[in-house]
Amino acid sequence: MHNVRLNPIQSKVEEAHQNPTAASLDFSFEGTWHTEKDNVQFSGDVAFPQGELTLSADFPPFLGGEGRAPSALTYCFFGALSCYGSTFATQAAMAGVKLDAMTISLDLGVDFRAALGVGDFPPIFGFQNMVKVKSDASDDDIQKVKQLTDERCPAIWAMNNPVPHTTAAEKIN
Fold first, then answer.
1. Tens digit of pLDDT for each residue in 13-64?
2. For residue 87, is it within any domain?
3. How many folded domains does the chain comprise?
């Protein structure tokens, strides 16, 4: 339904009832900071079921880059946008709500003063997703899908809950 394959989802739902780890994915990434002045600042390979892609990132000039590639935050926010949109489309399909068309936008602001050492300021404010759908479904059905999306989207969950994390650095020879 609207480019969401329901059969594999239903199979995974049934499997996950029996095996909690059946619906888990592990991610592991590695990237390289490039020290050459004529290169993007950062790049790394990302694997996915049907291939691999090299992504590059470069800060905008006011943060010390040249803006030759999207910034790391661009990828982060596009990921959040894509996650919310994918979750919305999937939840609609699982609920039997057909979408004829869908667009999603994300608006937010980022304050870099803390990153620049100017003071202690919250870096992100004003995060707003807007989904626009063309559908024969009722407004109530669309709002039910939105509610399911808000409850089930991993990106929204990560924004609403502290995610355990660690950092480390080591000198190599």
1. 999 999 989 999 888 999 999 999 899 999 999 999 999 999 999 999 999 9
2. yes
3. 1
- Cβ pair 132, 146 in contact under 8 A: no
Nearest Cα neighbor of 146 from 80, 113, 97 is 97
Residue 65: exposure state from Cβ atoms within 10 A (0-12, 13-18, ≥19): middle
Tell me whether residue 124 is in a domain. Answer: yes
Give the domain CATH number at 69.
3.30.300.20
Q: Which amino acid is at 35?
A: T
- On whether residue 20 sits in a domain, the answer given is no
- 156 assigned to some structural domain: yes
91-117 pLDDT, tens digit each: 999 999 999 999 999 999 999 999 999
User: Is the distance from CB of 155 to CB of 84 less than 8 angstroms?
Assistant: yes
Residues spanned by the domain of 107: 44-160
* CA–CA dist 15, 168 (Å, integer): 36
pTM for the predicted model, two decimal places: 0.89
Give the strand order in the sheet containing 42-48: 31-33, 42-48, 51-57
Q: Give the 3-state secondary structure of residue 59.
A: coil
Tokens linked to 151: 């409850």
pLDDT in tens, 109-143: 999 999 999 999 999 988 899 999 999 999 999 99
Q: Look at residue 94 and give its three-state secondary structure.
A: helix
